[in-house]
């Protein structure tokens, strides 16, 4: 349903031009959970911004249901890494989650039902009338997830959403996102630099090369569902995939090293 | 702060001014200097004049001028500031004009204003509004251009309508700066109210102070000055209270970001 077609992005012009994305091509299928991993600075955020229509690509295009994306599509939501800066601090949890729904012009009851459902799905029902800054980091990110869910997107983009929370919270949030994904039947594109996380969450992993980014490989994850933080991670297949992705990233990094060296 | 520290702080806030008044009172009690009458004289004149004989004739007109001027400035400056904040091109075009107009010392505009608008209330309101606009305008622009990029992206991703983006995102996001500008403007409004009333007026507190001085009614003059001080203090205090309420989220967010 989401097609990245020969996507390229170059910042600046002439001698100062920096090629962030070289030539990217992959597809995300309906209801799929695709994790995108790559070494840091490989243009993952640029890719997400092109996919969400926030940034216009230099070459190629991204299509949602065969329609070229040239601005944020209505059936798409994006969860940022910086939860603290993507929630509106002057709005309560309820108002934050409800705010994007204004665009949809729903009846009042319908909107508030969507809000309450989404907030319940992320386990924050008791906090509807609190303000984001009264909550912990993990809870704030859950508010951001609830806001995305209430918006009822077909596709949910997530930009390293759990990179700024502690390990325990992170594991909880990983399980939470798998659960709400099942519940809402939403397609997810999940960008991360954490290999374990990508193997644990994904149906498929797209490994990127360093900038100028291309697809190194696309890898199906054949782990049983539902996943479990202990059992899944103890499976030999998990270890194999993890090592595979790790080598894949390492290989591309070392092979890219000499190209960067000349100054 | 513990309860005790708070009590101590409030105590200091109350006692120090009282103490100064007492010292002033003692120092001036036997005063025969014409220009520095005993404080008791000033206070009794104050009571005779402002409680509440001249409230209707002088205080109310002054406050109305100030309120109108300030109010107009707030509306104009916030609207213009939002527009300029959102459009880099408009900002570029307006910058030299804004910088020029705000550099003009406001009293210098009085002769022009009297000539064009006359000596009535509108002239005073105009002068007050003209001066109050700049701090609010510049702060609004600053606030809007300073909105966090992630917050902007969020707003775009969710397809928030232009109107909502303006009134429900940009305006609240810029409100801490806007309030800072309004606070500066509020004290300017008081100053310009007095100045405009001293130049051409038949009533108002500024007029009263100048008129008292000209007729050698020195205790009256002092009582007017005292009243202006009290007014300024009260207005600022009231403003801070409102600001605290409206920007409660801002203080909360900042406190949690620092912890």
Q: What's the mean pLDDT score of chain A?
A: 88
Beta content of chain A: 15-25%
CATH H-tier superfamily of chain B: MetI-like
Order of helices and strands of chain B: HHHHHHHHHHH
Question: What is the level-2 CATH architecture name of the domain at 31-56 and 72-196 in chain A?
Answer: 3-Layer(aba) Sandwich
| CATH fold call of chain B | MetI-like fold
Described by the principal axes of the CA atoms, the overall outline of chain B is flat
Q: How far is it from the N-terminal to the C-terminal residue of chain A, by CA?
A: 42 Å
> What is the CATH level 1 assignment of chain B?
Mainly Alpha
> Beta-strand percentage of chain B?
under 5%
* CATH classification, class level of the domain at 31-56 and 72-196 in chain A: Alpha Beta
For the secondary structure, the number of strands of chain B is 0
Instruction: List unreliable stretches of 5+ residues of chain B.
Output: none
Overview of the molecule:
The complex is a heterodimer of chains A (263) and B (259). Residues 258-263 of chain A have low confidence and may be disordered. Chain A has a domain at 31-56 and 72-196: P-loop containing nucleotide triphosphate hydrolases (Rossmann fold, 3-Layer(aba) Sandwich), CATH 3.40.50. By secondary structure, chain A is of the alpha/beta class. In chain A, helix 4 packs across helix 5 (137-150) and helix 5 (137-150) packs parallel to helix 6 (167-184). In chain A, a hairpin with a 6-residue loop joins strand 1 and strand 2 (18-28). In chain A, strands 5-4-1-2-10-9-3-8-7-6 form a ten-stranded mixed β-sheet, with helices on both faces. Chain A is built from nine helices and ten strands. Chain A is globular and about 50 Å long. Chain A starts with a strand and ends with a helix. Chain B has 259 residues and is mainly α. Chain B has one domain (38-247): MetI-like (MetI-like fold), CATH 1.10.3720. In chain B, helix 2 (39-50) crosses helix 10, helix 3 (55-86) packs parallel to helix 6 (121-145) and helix 9 (205-214) runs antiparallel to helix 10. The longest helix of chain B is centred in the last third of the chain and has 38 residues, at 162-199. The mean pLDDT of chain B is 92. At the A-B interface, strand 6 and helix 2 of A face helix 7, helix 8 and helix 11 of B.
């Amino acid at each position: 349903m989401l097609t990245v077609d020969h996507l390229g992005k170059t910042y600046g012009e002439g001698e100062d031009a920096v090629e962030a994305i070289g030539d990217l091509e992959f597809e995300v299928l309906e209801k799929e959970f695709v994790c995108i991993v790559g070494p840091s600075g490989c243009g993952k955020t640029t890719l997400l911004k092109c996919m969400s229509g926030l940034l216009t690509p230099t070459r190629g295009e991204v299509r949602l249901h065969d329609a070229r994306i040239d601005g944020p599509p209505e059936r798409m939501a994006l969860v940022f890494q910086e939860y603290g800066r993507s929630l509106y601090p002057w709005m309560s949890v309820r108002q934050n989650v409800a705010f994007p729904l204004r665009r949809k012009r729903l009846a009042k009851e319908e909107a508030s039902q969507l809000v309450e459902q989404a907030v319940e799905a992320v386990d924050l029902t008791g906090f509807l009338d609190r303000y984001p800054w009264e909550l912990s980091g993990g809870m704030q990110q859950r508010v951001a997830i609830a806001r995305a869910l209430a918006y009822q997107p077909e596709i949910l983009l997530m930009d390293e959403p759990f990179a700024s929370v502690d390990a325990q919270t992170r594991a909880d949030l990983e399980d939470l996102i798998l659960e709400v994904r099942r519940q809402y039947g939403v397609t997810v594109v999940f960008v991360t630099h954490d290999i374990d996380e990508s193997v644990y969450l994904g149906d498929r992993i797209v490994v990127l090369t360093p900038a100028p980014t291309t697809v190194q490989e696309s890898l199906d994850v054949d782990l049983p569902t539902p996943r479990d933080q202990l059992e899944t991670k103890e499976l030999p297949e998990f270890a194999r995939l993890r090592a595979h992705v790790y080598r894949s990233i390492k290989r591309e990094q070392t092979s890219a090293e000499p190209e960067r060296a000349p100054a | 702060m513990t309860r005790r520290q708070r009590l101590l702080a409030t105590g200091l806030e109350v006692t120090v001014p009282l103490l100064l008044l007492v010292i002033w009172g003692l120092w001036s009690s036997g005063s025969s200097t014409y220009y520095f009458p005993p404080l008791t004289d000033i206070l009794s004149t104050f009571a005779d004049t402002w409680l509440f004989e001249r409230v209707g004739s002088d205080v109310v007109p002054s406050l109305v001028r100030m309120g109108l001027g300030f109010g107009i400035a707030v509306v104009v400056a916030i609207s213009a500031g939002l527009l300029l904040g959102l459009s880099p091109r408009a900002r570029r075009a307006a910058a030299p004009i804004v910088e020029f107009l705000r550099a003009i010392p406001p009293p210098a505009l009085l002769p022009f204003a009297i000539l064009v608008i006359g000596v009535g209330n509108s002239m005073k309101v105009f002068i007050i509004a003209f001066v109050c606009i700049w701090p609010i305008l510049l702060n609004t622009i600053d606030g809007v251009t300073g909105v966090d990029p992630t917050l902007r992206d969020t707003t775009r991703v969710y397809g928030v309508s232009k109107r909502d983006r303006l009134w429900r995102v940009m305006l609240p996001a810029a409100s801490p700066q806007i309030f800072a500008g309004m606070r500066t403007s509020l004290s300017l409004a008081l100053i310009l109210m007095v100045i405009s009333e001293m130049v051409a007026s038949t009533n108002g507190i500024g007029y009263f102070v100048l008129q008292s001085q000209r007729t050698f009614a020195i205790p009256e003059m002092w009582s007017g000055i005292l009243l202006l001080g009290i007014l300024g203090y009260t207005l600022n205090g009231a403003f801070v209270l409102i600001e605290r309420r409206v920007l409660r989220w801002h203080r909360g967010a900042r406190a949690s970001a620092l912890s």
